[in-house]
Each structure stands twice: as structure tokens, then as C-alpha cells.
Write a structure and sequence with these properties.
Length: 276
Amino acid sequence: MNSIIRKLFYAMPIPMRYGIRRIIYFPADIFRDKKLLMPPKGLIFTGSGDYLKVGQNFFNHFQKYGRLTPDSKVLDIGSGIGRMAIPFTPYLSSEGRYEGFDIVKKGVDWCTKNISSQFPNFNFKLIPLHNDLYNHSTEDKAASLRFPYSENYFDFVFLTSVFTHMMPDDVENYIVEIRRVLQRDKICFCTFFILDEKSKTSMSQNGLKNFPHDFKNYSLMDRDVKEANVAYDKEFLYSLFEKHQLQITHFIRGNWSGVTPGDLNEHQDILIIKKI
Ligand SMILES: C[S@@+](CC[C@H](N)C(=O)[O-])C[C@H]1O[C@@H](n2cnc3c(N)ncnc32)[C@H](O)[C@@H]1O
């Protein structure tokens, strides 16, 4: 999206954004294959790209780094409209468990109606929290949320394109909560926009994204809609994980900044985190 279109898009009230999407994709959605487990395109509010392909690619990454088994207990933080959940449906056994939560009702409702109805070990919760981009209906903050799950329950936790929409206090609280609900030695897979010397130098010249508004530990793409896109200083982020006894085992660079990406060739940077 070029920057003028992005500005216009962000300036619209949230329901108008959703409404425009519904109208644009209406013709394609009428003729879609209704047997496919996926939402109509007009309902997908969680990013562009091929919905099924992106989900399958990430599922392959989760298998590579997450030490998944069919009996895994998986937590999908910011589960959106089910893009990451769908590839797990043929994989998890009836002993396995999939929990997702999100702040947007539309996505949680679609997942409950279309995924949980067929796969009862998949559960999606609505936790309404304020977000500049996604939810203006409450002032409740992610910084105060206690995840509604018990200690040491999950053996795999992931966030795809969620920390990229969250401010520092909120991110820190989620790190604390991830540590609490994750079993020891198990993995959290999460994506970020990470600012180091290379990405900072490259992004304004060669980047697919740029973060010109520098607030020291983090930078923003848009000052007015802060949570539309947030990038984090690498040292700050690493110190947060260290402070909460989570070990970063891999940093896999994405292509957003124009620096040559790592082998997964994703848009966002990926951190693989282990609870120690
Ligand atoms: C770009 S979408 C990605 C959705 C999903 N993870 C995926 O990859 O398809 C970002 C999602 O994060 C959710 N989100 C934003 N802030 C959140 C928060 N504090 N807690 C949980 N979800 C949040 C949004 O509602 C939205 O569904």
C-alpha cells in the first residue's frame, strides 16, 4: 500500500474499513468455493496475500522450529480470522488442544462458527482490548491482561504479526504471560520488525516498510495510528526477553527492510524463544 492510500485507510472509522473490504470482494465472494475451510475474502481483516498459502507456510515453519506433535497444546495469540489455525485442523489429534484469542469479535466469531464447530478441541476467545488499528470499542489495555490459561499449560505458543501492532508495555506484559503459560524448554515463535544497524540503514532506501518516527526503543510508521506498525530496537527487545528468562535461540531476518532475508524468506523478522 503506498503511503497516501495507507493514510486514507487509517483515517477511516474501523467499520467503514471493514465495509469497503466487503464491497470490493463481494463479486469474488459470491462465486467462492464454499466447501473450502476459509473465510470470504471480504471478511479477512488480517493482511493481504494468499490466505491459505500464508497459513500453510507458517505451519511448515512451526513444524521446523516448534517441535510440534499431534498431541501438542498450542496457543495462538492474536488468532485473527483463523489463518494460522486452519492448517492445524488435520494435524492435531483429539488429545491435542488449540487455543486462540483475539481482540476483534468478527474474527473470533468466524473461527468459532467454522472451526470449533467441526473441531471441538479448537477454542477461540474474544478478549476485547484497545488497539489503535483494530479496536476502539474499549480502553482496556493489553498491558494489564492476565491470559485466561493456567501455568505451564502450553507446549507451543506463537504470535504472527501481533507484536508488530503492540506498544512496549503491552509487549512486556505478554512476554511475562507467555513465560507463565508455556512449559519449560518449550518454544514461542513470534514475529517482529526488528531495528538493528543493517535494517535501520536499509529501510528508508530499499525497504518495503520504513519507520521514520523514532522513540528510542521503538519506531513507528505512522504517528497518528501508532499501533498500525511498530518496530523494535533489537537490543531493547533482547533485554526484555532476557529480563523475563526467555532465551532467544534464533533470529531469522525478514525481507521488510530490504536486507537479504534469512532462509524462511518471510516479510517480518522471526524470533524463536525458549523458556529456560
Ligand atoms: C495482522 S493480524 C494477524 C492475525 C493472525 N495472527 C494471522 O497471522 O493471521 C493482527 C492481529 O492481532 C490482533 N491483536 C492486536 N492486538 C492484540 C492484542 N493485544 N492481543 C491479542 N490480539 C491482538 C488483531 O486483532 C489482529 O487479529
